[in-house]
Design a protein that fits this description.
Elements lengths: L1 E5 L5 H15 L27 E8 L2 E9 L8 E7 L8 H12 L2 E8 L3 H15 L3 E6 L2 E8 L6
Antiparallel strand pairs: 1-2, 2-3, 3-4, 5-7, 6-7
């Protein structure tokens, strides 16, 4: 069973380790991403994810870590958004990613805004498919500053 687990501050190093796999896979879309002299990608500042409205989650299959998601929950003037979303390659194609996306939508009902870079066509296709499944044609998509952006609303009553 695939599930979400809140990342605790003391687990930050584990999250950084998982992020190395994410950066490696994502670097195919951003040629300027380079490994440091230490053989790793630069660490990302995660301090904000230990306090609302930011949330860091491990994605687990049973008890095995298979990915993570970084979420910003809605505030008065901003919608919910998934900042980063990753499942390791060997677990992709099993529906886990879609299942976790729907769990996140259910956890944070309301307005959502997702974005993907132009070159990441697999991510665009994935998110369009999940959004379509959740809200049908009740979303807007536009292109701005090299990003494809989808806006939609998930009600508390959605049967996800």
């Amino acid at each position: 069973m695939v599930s979400l687990h809140k990342v605790r501050k003391e687990e930050e190093t584990v999250l950084h380790h998982l992020m190395q796999f994410y950066f490696y896979e994502f670097s195919r879309y951003l040629p300027n991403m380079k490994v440091t002299d230490h053989g790793t990608y630069n660490r990302v500042e995660l301090d904000r994810y230990w306090n609302d409205p930011y949330h860091a989650y491990f994605i687990k299959l049973n008890e095995e870590l298979i990915g993570f998601s970084l979420v910003e929950s809605a505030e008065a003037l901003s919608p919910n958004s998934i900042q980063e979303f990753f499942i390791m390659a060997k677990y992709q194609g099993n529906g886990y990613k879609k299942e976790i996306a729907k769990k996140l939508f259910k956890m944070f009902p309301g307005e959502w805004e997702l974005s993907q870079i132009e070159k990441n066509q697999p991510a665009q296709a994935f998110w369009r498919g999940v959004i379509q499944e959740v809200v049908a044609d009740q979303y807007k998509e536009y292109h701005e500053n090299g990003l494809y952006i989808q806006k939609f609303r998930v009600s508390e009553k959605e049967n996800l």
